[in-house]
Amino acid sequence: MAVEWREMDVAHAERLARNESLFREVNERINEVAGSLSPDDLGADDHRYEFVCECSDPHCTERLVLSRGEYDQVRADGTRFVLAHGHVTAEIEHVVERTDDYVVIEKEGVAAEVATGLDPRTT
Ligand SMILES: [Zn+2]
């Protein structure tokens, strides 16, 4: 019995992590395009772009405003994601950074493994 429940939890956490990894793929594309669009003449490294919220809700349409530098900082760690305030799923992640515009979370356990496995920057 206990084992069954545990397996369900793992599957659940895995699914949530996969949703977030999907949004991460979208943001990687945004970051790429932003990089090609902002040569030196646009200047400022602190120019901010609209990224999508990387929470586990597949229907989330929240937009977050970050500079490419801020975004890259999140992406440097394969278990970290950028989310809108109030979109944190406490069972699979915890907040490591909080700004006025967004929160940065770090995955735990199975969710962290899935996130690392799907990290577009390590494949
Ligand atoms: Zn969200």
Structure description:
With 123 residues, the protein is α+β, with helices and mostly antiparallel strands. The chain has one domain (2-117). The protein is built from three helices and five strands. It has helices at residues 2-37, 68-75, 109-117; strands spanning 48-52, 63-67, 80-83, 93-98, 103-107. The strands form two sheets. Strands 3-5-4 form a three-stranded antiparallel β-sheet, with helices on both faces. A two-stranded antiparallel sheet has the order 1-2. Helix 1 crosses helix 3. The mean pLDDT is 86. Zinc ion binds next to loops.
Number of domains: 1
> What order do the helices and strands follow?
HEEHEEEH
Bound ligand species: zinc ion
- What summary fits the major beta sheet? 3 strands, antiparallel
Lateral strand order in the biggest sheet = 3-5-4
Mean pLDDT: 86
Ranges where pLDDT stays below 50 over 5 or more residues in a row are: none
Report, as a whole number of angstroms, the end-to-end distance. Answer: 37 Å
| Helical content band | 40-55%
Structural class: alpha+beta
Strand content: 15-25%
Helical run tally: 3
Number of strands: 5
Give the overall form. Answer: globular
The value of Rg in angstroms is 15 Å
